[in-house]
Amino acid sequence: MKCDDCLNLLEEFVDGELAGDGLEQVNNHLVICQRCSSQLESMTAEMEVYARYDRELEIAPSMWQAIAARTVSESRAVDSHSPRGFSEWFTGLFTAPRFRYAFSGALAVAVIAVVVGVMYLRTHQQQPKPIDVVAGTHDLVTPPDNTGDMTPPRQSDVIKPAAGSDISQVKVAANRNPRVMSKAPDDPGVLYSDVAYSELAERDTAEHIKQSENLLRSLRSLQATEDDSEIDVTYEKAMSRRLLSENEVLRQDAETAGKFPVKELLKDLEPFLTEIANLPDKTTATQLRELKDRVQKTEIVAALVSYDD
Amino acid sequence: MKRLAQAVSLTGQPEAFAGSVMNSSSDLVARTRQGEQDAFRLIFERYSRPVLSFIYDMVGNREVAEDLTQETFVRAYRGLGALREEAKLSTWLFGIAKNVARESLRSRARTDQHLDLDHEAVLDLSDREPVPVNQLLSKELNALIERSLAALDDDKRLVFTLKIFQQCSYEEIAEITGFSISKLKTDLHRARAEMRKRISPYVRSWS
Q: Hey, which end of chain A has fewer CB within 10 Å, N or C?
């Protein structure tokens, strides 16, 4: 290789971009050529100068806060355009400019018609009627032995068939509006419950419990060599904070729906999530070991696993 | 249940909590796409410093660089769905930063960008003999490099900064800039020569 060829390749050589035959030839040439070697030294010295360049820049915490504020507000805006639940859709009909007055008027007429119809039926019926509801006006049915009471029961109310009433009548009502009532398959203490809870909240709860289980498992797997060594648990803390807020919502939902075993499980889980969320970012091996011991002793992971099963 | 709707699904990622190794770029991108703000914060923490440095080298103004870094990450968040190869997150971020910096440069007169260099006041080396680099004060050296960078044209400064300070490969620089390899090699060679010409009067080893 001639010096001109070597010098032409020297920048690529310094940049680490040279490979194959070119690299080998330049290496061989540098061993025997003083001029090219000295040029290489000069370029290396330049790189050392650039490596000393310090812009003295700091990332201010306010920068992330500003970014988070902008991105979170955009996420919310996206959420508001995403598919909504029935109640939000229904509420939205009253606020949509096109339907605000027309829909409200139509609904008022419909409600009046239904009320008149019900009153007419009450005054004329001689035989017990199947339990029925007006779809869209309230979620649960009026008990068959309390037909005079027009107050919609609370969501947590448990409806039991009255003595002598026909259970098939209840089933007919449920079939007419399957969202209204269904048999709760996993809780013998509650005859009927809201399907909306069963399908949505149970799925969320299962997901939540799975994530909590993974979090506790990962905590157990964290290792430290010495008692005074520090372990970075920043991620576990962040995850725990998120799970903690979820836990509160799900526990309340479970309580409202009469899912007491689930409620108790979430209640047992909560102190661990709180404790992890409040750990210092760099926790000591001793702190971690104490927490791990409590996790072990209370068998909370086993309880979470049994829910999955 | 809205809060739960944004929950991170870990289905298929049973090892996701197994320590810090889980925070690969691909993993962080996936989790951010699922709405996990903390994952995006980790992306920010990992890349904010190089992005800020890169933008600062391009625009030469601290406050502008901070604003543009913020803008870069907001655009990245919006465009994360379009990122095809999660492993090339840094290249993609530098590409956004480059666009943001160039837009800013276009909208301002170049002279305005560099007249208020932070180290302008301390750079008064014109009557000094070249000295070994370790005898230059840190602020003097920083000011020297900043002024020399500012004197490069945009393309050369872009390529030089990505290669010398951000240690990008030629292939990555080509992806970020859209330049051909031959153009970026030429620009880099000329940028090196110009920088050498401006710095060598003050640094003995370069003389």
A: C
The four Cα atoms B109, B110, B115, B118 give a dihedral, to 10 degrees, of 120
Q: φ and ψ at A305, to 5 degrees?
A: -65, -40
B117 in Cβ contact with B146 (< 8 Å): yes
- Which pair of tokens denotes residue A85? 């639940």
Q: Higher pLDDT residue, A96 or B75?
A: B75
**Torsion, Cα of B89, B93, B99, B100 (10° steps):** 160
Give the whole-angstrom CA distance, residue B113 versus residue B61.
Answer: 6
pTM here is: 0.51
User: Given A63, A70, A207, which is nearest B69 (Cβ)?
Assistant: A63
Tokens of A48: 């050392």
Q: How many CB pairs under 8 A join A and B?
A: 137
Rg (CA), chain B: 20
Instruction: Please answer whether residues A193 and A258 qualify as being in contact, where contact means their C-beta atoms are separated by less than 8 angstroms.
Output: yes
Single out the residue of A295, A291, A290, A292 nearest to residue A269, CA to CA.
A295
- The answer to whether the CB of B34 falls within 8 A of the CB of A41 is no
Compute the CA torsion angle B113, B115, B118, B122 (nearest 10 deg). Answer: 160
Extended strands (E) in chain A:
182-183, 192-193, 230-232, 282-284
Q: Please list, residue by residue across A248-260, b when 16 or more beta carbons sit within 10 angstroms of its beta carbon and e when fewer do.
A: ebbbebbbebbbe
Q: Do B188 and A49 touch (CB under 8 A)?
A: no
Distance from CA of B70 to the nearest CA of A (A): 6
- The DSSP element (H or E) to which B155 belongs, if any, is helix B154-160
Query: Strand locations in B58-191, DSSP E?
Result: none
- B114-153 burial string, b = 16+ CB within 10 Å, else e? beebbbeeebebeeeebeebeebeeebbbbbbbbbbbebe
Give Cα A237 distance to the centre of its chain. 15
Interface contact flag, B74 A232, Cβ < 8 Å: no
Contact B54, B37 (CB under 8 A): no
- Of A131 and B137, the structure prediction assigns the larger pLDDT to B137
Confidence of residue A167 (pLDDT cuts 50, 70, 90): very low
Query: Dihedral of CA A87/A178/A253/B30: which sign?
Result: negative
pLDDT at A115 over 50: yes
Place of tokens 């409620």: A263
Which residues in chain B touch residue A204, judged by CB atoms under 8 angstroms apart? 1, 4, 7
CA pair distance A221, A215, nearest whole angstrom: 10
